[in-house]
Write a structure and sequence with these properties.
One of its GO terms (cellular component) is cytoplasm. This protein has about 140 residues and is α+β, with helices and mostly antiparallel strands. The chain has one helix and seven strands.
Length: about 140
Amino acid sequence: MLESGCKAVKEGVLEKRSDGLLQLWKKKRCILTEEGLLLTPPKQQPPQQQQQPPLPAEPAAKIKELHFSNMKTVDCVERKGKYVYFTVVMAEGKEIDFRCAQEQGWNAAITLQMVQYKNRQAILAVRSTRQKQQHLGQT
């Protein structure tokens, strides 16, 4: 996504609930763009390791991309304590649970970008249909 020239709209850390039996909350570095959400493991460099040569970059397999074309909704589940819990529902029905501090507003930012993406796609579809109709009318 970022390789295609999309600029980052918001960056930070979100906690994602794991799919495993224990369903632990794991921190993910998140980059929100105009096309979707990228999830990567957080960069961990303890102070004692900073003098050592840098570690190789995370393999591409560790990066998870949630593209807005595959996203159905963002549901705000609940505000509890200092956290907002929300669920991203994908088109195929998969649900991904997240949480963040209330003041970070990740759920609102993701929802806004998704709506803007869907609106752009709808406008492009209408333009394409009109162009086809005009072309058919000219022949």
